[in-house]
Amino acid sequence: xxxxxxxxxxxxxxxxxxxxxxxxxxxxxxxxxxxxxxxxxxxxxxxxxxxxxxxxxxxxxxxxxxxxxxxxxxxxxxxxxxxxxxxxxxxxxxxxxxxxxxxxxxxxxxxxxxxxxxxxxxxxxxxxxxxxxxxxxxxxxxxxxxxxxxxxxxxxxxxxxxxxxxxxxxxxxxxxxxxxxxxxxxxxxxxxxxxxxxxxxxxxxxxxxxxxxxxxxxxxxxxxxxxxxxxxxxxxxxxxxxxxxxxxxxxxxxxxxxxxxxxxxxxxxxxxxxxxxxxxxxxxxxxxxxxxxx
Amino acid sequence: xxxxxxxxxxxxxxxxxxxxxxxxxxxxxxxxxxxxxxxxxxxxxxxxxxxxxxxxxxxxxxxxxxxxxxxxxxxxxxxxxxxxxxxxxxxxxxxxxxxxxxxxxxxxxxxxxxxxxxxxxxxxxxxxxxxxxxxxxxxxxxxxxxxxxxxxxxxxxxxxxxxxxxxxxxxxxxxxxxxxxxxxxxxxxxxxxxxxxxxxxxxxxxxxxxxxxxxxxxxxxxxxxxxxxxxxxxxxxxxxxxxxxxxxxxxxxxxxxxxxxxxxxxxxxxxxxxxxxxxxxxxxxxxxxxxxxx
DNA sequence: AGGTTTGTAGGATTTAGTAGGATTTCGTAA
DNA sequence: TTACGAAATCCTACTAAATCCTACAAACCT
Lengths: 294, 294
Description:
The structure is a homodimer. Chain A has helices at about 10-20, 35-45, 60-70, 85-95, 105-140, 150-160, 165-180, 190-200, 205-235, 240-250, 250-265, 275-290; strands at about 1-5, 25-30, 50-55, 75-80, 100. By secondary structure, the first copy, chain A, is an alpha/beta fold. Chain B binds a DNA duplex through helix 9.
C-alpha cells in the first residue's frame, strides 16, 4: 500500500509514518503540511490511501477531498483529527472517507484500521480482477492489469535497459504531462515547449539552464537505449525487445551501424544520430494506446 | 446481517436500532443492558455482529468480548462508547474488535461503518467460495505470502547467484534504507551518500575507510553477479534469469563480452566494467515496485 | 606455507551540467 | 520545383564532481 499524509502538525506526521513503517503496512510516498500543497503531488503519484487531517490552514480536509475527487482521484481517505463536533464527522463520512480516527493518535488503533482498510482494498481489487477476467473470457479479449502512466513508461524504459539513467525520470514526467494535459492527441508540441513546461514543473530556478540540462539528459539516455538495443540485436535479433523497439523508437540505419560495430568488437567509433523527438513521440503514442485500453 | 446490541443506556440502544432499521442494514435479533445478561442469548442466537458498549455495570465491554471468544463465539464486534482514554481504545482493538465508534452517536458515521463491516464480511465470504472452488482443480497453491523488503531483495540476489557473497548484506541494508527512508521515490541519492549512511548504520569507527570497503564489497559482489548471469546466458540466453536480469541490471555490452569469452573457454582475460549505480538503482526500483503491492 | 578473500589508498575514467555553435526542418516565396 | 531564412533540433567541448579501477597490504582460511 502507498500512503500519503496531509497534516499541519509535523509531530503527527512523524508518528503516523513511524506506525506505518514499524507495522510494515506499506510505504509513505509523500507528505504535505496543508491541503493546498498536497493536491499536485497526490494527483501525480496516485497513492492508494490518503491520511488527512480535518483542521488545516488554507484548505481544510473536506475541501481537499472534494477537490481531489473532482480531479478524478480515486484513492481512499482516512481522516485523522481531534474534532469533537459529531456533525462534522458525519459530513466527512458523507464525503466518502473510509474512516475517522480521533486524535490523540493511538498506535494500535491506527494500525488496526490501516490493516483493515488495506484488506478491504485488496479484497475489492481481487474481486474486480476476477470479474474482469470473467468478462473478458466471454468476449475473448485478454484482460490487462490496470497500470498508471508512470508504470507503463517504466516498463518500457526497463525493457530498453535505461531504467537507471538520469534522464529516465524526465521521460516519465514528460509522458505524464503529455497524457494528462495534451488535449488533442493528434498534435505534438515542439520539444522546446516540452522542455520548458518540464523545467517549470521541476521548480527550476533558471528555466533556460534547466531546459539545456534536460535536453542533454534526454540525449544521453536515448543514446544509451540505442546502444543497449543494438547490443541485444547483435546477440539475438529475434528477441522481443529488439523486434519491438529497434524499428519504432530509433533510426534503423543507426541501429544497424552500431550492430555491425558491436559485432566487430570496435566500440564507440563512429558517431550516432540521436533523434529525441522521434523517441518521445513514439513513447507517448504507445503509452497513450495502452493507457486507453485499460 | 444479524445484529445484537449490548448497552446499559436504553436511549442508545433505541438509536442504534433505528439506524439499522432505517438504513436497511439488517436485523436486530436481540439486546441486553449489560454484559452478563448478553452472554447466553448471544451464544444461542450467534449474531454476525455485536454492537457493544465499553462501560457497563457487572461485566464491561472488554470482559464480555473475552468471555464470548473463550466460549467459541466467532462473530465480529463493534464497540460504541464515550471513552476518552486512548489506552482503552488500543486495548479494545487488541482484543479484536472491528471498529471503535465514539459517542455521541452520529447516524452517518454508524451507517457507514456498519455498511463497511457488512461489505467486508460479504467480500471475504465470496472470495472464500471462489478459493474453495478453485482448490478443487489446483493442487499446489501458490500462497501469495507477504514478504518484507529483505526477503524480496534476497530472492533477486539468489536469482543472480550472489546470495553468499559478502556484499549481499550491504545490498540488502542499502535497499532497506532506501525503501524506508527515501521520501521522494523519484530521486536517487548519490552513491557516496548511500555509502556514508550505511557506514554510520553499521557503527563503523572510521567512516571513510568503511565507505571504501563497502564500495569494494559491492563491486566484487556485482562482478560475481555479472559473471554468473553471463554464464547462464552462454548456455541458454532464453532462460528466465538471463532475460530478466542481463538487460536491466548490467551494461549489456559487458555481458556480451563475457558471454563470448565463456563460449570460447578463455576466462578472466579482459576487464569488465561494473556499474554499481545502475545495479543498485534498478534493484531499488524493482523492490519498490513489488513492495508497494503488499 | 600457499592460496583466497577482504580492506586500503590513490589515481583514472566517466558523467552531468553548461554554453555555444552546427545542422536539420519547414513554411514561404520565387 | 528550388531557394531562403528562421525556428527547431541536434552536436561538441569543457569542467567539476561522482564513480570506477588497479594494485598492494592485511586477514583469513585450510
